C-alpha cells in the first residue's frame, strides 16, 4: 500500500539538528548489524510501524461497512453515500495531520517523541471505536486515529534515517526492510479484523486493531532508549515566549470547529467537501508563499511551477486509488462473489490484496529502474503512465458492470487490483522524491507538505465521488472517472517537454 494511502508511509523530513547539539563522527549512524544486517534499533521502529499499519488498515477495512450496515447487523445505519464521504474526509485528515506532526517534531518535541505520543493517541482512538457505542465512539475514534496517524507518518521515516550515516551503504536496504514491515501490517490487519467482524462483531474487530497498536507500543517503549540522540533533537525550537501564543491559536481553532459543528455548517453529509475546501486553500497558500518569497531564485521558482502539473495529476491519481476504501468496499460487499468452496470471505479481506502485489512488485520496479539508469522514464512520464494505468483499471470494472449481486468473480477484482498496484508504483514511490528534488533550499519541508496536501485532497475527493456511485447503474461512474484519469495522463504526456524545462535539470 502506498502511503501515501496505503502501505508505504511517506514522511515530512526533519532538518539537521541545530543549536548546541553537535554529533561527532562516531555518533553519526549505528554500525550494529544484529537485525538482518541492520542496526538492531531498526527493529523497534519496524515493529511500531508494522503494528500501526496493522491497526490502521485493519480498522479501515471494516470502517465503511460498520457505518452503513443496519443496526440489526451491528452497524450504525448511516446512509451509504454519507458514510463513504466520512471515510474520504477521515483519510484526507490523516494526511493533513502529517503537517501538524512535522511541525511538532520540528519546533517542540523532536521526531522520536512525537512518534511515541502519536502511537498512544492511535491506540486510544481504536479503544474508543471498540468500547464507546454509536456515533460518539465513531467520532472520538476517527479524530484520535487521524491525528495520531498523521503524527506517526510524519516522523517514523525521519527516525529510521537517524540510524544511518549519510554514506552508509545499508541505508536503502534498511528502508526496504522498513517498507516490508509496513506492508506486512497492511496485509494482516484487514484479515484479522475482517474475520472477527464477520464472526463475532464489529467492535471485536476494532478491539483487535487496538491490541495490535498496543503490542507495537509496548515493543517500542522498551526499545526507544536505544535510538540515537539525533532522533530526539528539535531542529528549530520554538522560543518559550511564543509557546502560549500557539497554544492559544490551537484552542481557538478547536473552539471554532466546535461552533461550526454546533451551528450545522460542518455536518456528516458535507464533511468530505469541507476537508476538500480546507486542503485546497492550504495548498494554494503554500504555493503562494513559496512562489512569492524573495529567498528563492529564478531556477527555484521555475521548479516550483514545474511541480504544479505533477500536483494536479497526483490529486487525480489518489482520487481514484483511494476508492479502495469507499467504492471498492461497497462493490465488494454487493457485487463481488466472495464464496470460496462454500465459505464466504469477509469484505475487508479485499484490502489485503494490494499489499501482496506491492511486496512482490516493488522489488521488480526497483530492479527495472536500476537497470535502465539514465534511460528510465522521467518523473513527468512516470506520473503520466501511472494515472493512465489507473484510468484503465477503472475501465476494467466495465467488464462486470451492472451485474447481479455477487456476480463479479474474485479473480476479476484481483486482476483490477494488480493494475491498481502497477499504477501506484509508477507514481507513489517517485512523488515524494520529486517534491524534495524540486524544492528550494529554504522550503524543503513546505514542498513535502504540498505533496501530502495533494494526497489529502485526492483522498477527500475519493470520498466525495463515492456519493455518485450507483450500484444499479455503474457504467457512467467507471467510464467518466476512467476517461478523466486517462485524459490527465495524456495531457501530461503532451506537456512533458515544457514541464521538464520548468524543472530546470531535475528529471
From TrEMBL:
It is found in: Cell membrane; Membrane. The keyword Membrane applies. GO terms for biological process: oligopeptide transport. Residues 1-28 are annotated as: Disordered. Keywords: Cell membrane, Membrane, Transmembrane, Transmembrane helix, Transport. It holds the Pfam family PTR2. One of its GO terms (cellular component) is plasma membrane. One of its GO terms (molecular function) is peptide transmembrane transporter activity. It is a multi-pass membrane protein. The keyword Protease does not apply. Residues 41-500 form the Major facilitator superfamily (MFS) profile domain. It comes from the Bacteria. The chain crosses the membrane at residues 54-71, 83-105, 177-196, 202-223, 244-266, 272-292, 304-321, 349-369, 381-401, 407-427, 448-469, 475-496. Belongs to the major facilitator superfamily. Proton-dependent oligopeptide transporter (POT/PTR) (TC 2.A.17) family. PANTHER family: PROTON-DEPENDENT OLIGOPEPTIDE FAMILY TRANSPORT PROTEIN (PTHR23517:SF15), RESISTANCE PROTEIN MDTM, PUTATIVE-RELATED-RELATED (PTHR23517). This is Di-/tripeptide transporter. It comes from Microbacterium lemovicicum. The lineage of its organism: Bacteria, Bacillati, Actinomycetota, Actinomycetes, Micrococcales.
Amino acid at each position: 500500500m502506498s502511503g501515501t494511502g496505503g502501505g508505504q508511509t511517506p514522511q515530512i523530513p526533519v532538518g539537521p539538528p541545530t543549536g548546541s547539539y553537535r554529533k561527532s563522527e562516531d555518533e553519526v549512524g549505528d554500525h550494529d548489524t544484529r537485525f538482518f544486517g541492520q542496526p538492531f534499533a531498526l527493529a523497534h521502529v519496524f515493529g511500531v510501524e508494522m503494528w500501526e499499519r496493522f491497526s490502521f488498515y485493519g480498522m479501515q477495512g471494516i470502517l465503511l461497512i460498520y457505518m452503513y450496515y443496519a443496526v440489526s447487523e451491528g452497524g450504525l445505519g448511516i446512509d451509504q453515500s454519507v458514510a463513504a464521504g466520512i471515510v474520504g474526509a477521515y483519510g484526507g485528515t490523516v494526511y493533513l495531520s502529517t503537517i501538524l506532526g512535522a511541525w511538532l517534531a520540528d519546533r517542540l518535541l523532536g521526531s522520536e517523541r512525537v512518534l511515541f505520543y502519536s502511537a498512544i493517541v492511535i491506540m486510544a482512538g481504536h479503544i474508543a471505536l471498540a468500547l464507546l457505542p454509536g456515533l460518539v465512539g465513531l467520532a472520538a475514534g476517527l479524530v484520535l486515529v487521524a491525528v495520531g496517524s498523521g503524527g506517526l507518518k510524519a516522523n517514523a521515516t525521519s527516525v529510521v534515517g537517524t540510524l544511518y550515516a549519510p554514506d552508509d551503504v545499508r541505508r536503502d536496504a534498511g528502508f526496504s526492510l522498513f517498507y516490508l514491515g509496513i506492508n506486512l501490517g497492511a496485509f494482516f490487519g484487514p484479515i484479522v479484523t475482517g474475520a472477527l467482524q464477520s464472526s463475532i462483531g464489529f467492535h471485536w474487530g476494532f478491539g483487535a486493531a487496538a491490541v495490535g497498536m498496543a503490542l507495537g507500543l509496548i515493543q517500542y517503549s522498551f526499545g526507544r532508549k536505544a535510538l540515537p540522540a539525533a532522533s530526539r533533537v528539535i531542529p528549530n525550537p520554538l522560543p518559550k515566549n511564543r509557546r502560549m501564543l500557539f497554544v492559544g491559536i490551537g484552542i481557538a481553532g478547536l473552539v471554532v470547529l466546535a461552533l461550526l459543528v454546533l451551528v450545522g455548517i460542518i455536518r456528516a453529509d458535507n464533511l468530505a467537501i469541507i476537508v476538500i475546501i480546507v486542503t485546497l486553500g492550504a495548498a494554494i497558500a503554500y504555493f503562494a508563499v513559496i512562489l512569492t518569497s524573495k529567498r528563492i531564485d529564478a531556477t527555484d521558482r521555475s521548479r516550483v511551477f514545474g511541480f504544479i502539473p505533477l500536483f494536479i495529476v497526483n490529486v487525480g491519481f489518489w482520487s481514484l486509488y483511494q476508492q479502495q476504501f469507499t467504492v471498492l468496499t461497497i462493490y465488494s460487499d454487493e457485487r463481488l462473489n466472495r464464496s470460496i468452496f462454500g465459505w464466504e470471505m469477509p469484505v475487508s479481506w479485499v484490502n489485503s490484496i494490494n499489499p501482496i502485489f506491492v511486496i512482490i512488485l516493488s522489488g521488480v520496479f526497483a530492479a527495472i529502474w536500476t537497470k535502465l539508469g539514465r534511460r528510465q522514464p522521467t518523473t513527468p512520464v512516470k506520473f503520466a503512465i501511472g494515472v493512465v494505468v489507473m484510468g484503465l483499471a477503472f475501465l476494467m470494472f466495465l467488464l462486470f458492470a451492472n451485474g447481479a449481486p455477487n456476480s463479479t468473480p474474485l479473480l476479476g477484482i484481483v486482476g483490477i487490483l494488480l493494475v491498481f498496484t502497477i499504477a501506484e508504483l509508477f507514481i507513489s514511490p517517485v512523488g515524494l522524491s520529486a517534491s524534495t528534488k524540486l524544492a528550494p533550499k529554504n522550503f524543503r519541508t513546505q514542498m513535502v507538505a504540498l505533496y501530502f496536501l495533494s494526497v489529502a485532497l485526492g483522498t477527500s475527493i475519493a470520498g466525495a465521488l463515492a456519493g455518485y456511485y450507483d450500484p444499479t447503474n455503474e457504467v457512467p461512474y467507471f467510464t467518466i472517472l476512467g476517461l478523466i484519469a486517462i485524459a490527465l495522463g495524456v495531457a501530461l504526456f503532451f506537456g512533458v517537454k515544457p514541464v521538464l524545462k520548468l524543472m530546470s535539470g531535475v528529471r
